[in-house]
Amino acid sequence: MLRDIKKGDVVLLHDCGETVGADVDAPINTITALKEVFKELSGRRISCVRIDEL
Question: Can you tell me the distance from the alpha carbon of 7 to that of 19, in angstroms, rounded to the nearest whole number?
């Protein structure tokens, strides 16, 4: 995912962990991974904003 992200992209990630076959730890795993994603993108001078801030 990180390799392909560029300025102006919209990235949507979701997993409630409650759908059939979903990993119940998916939400916390996603949050944990996003912390690293935000660090990497910040280092590339790519900022992240909520969709309502565009």
Answer: 32
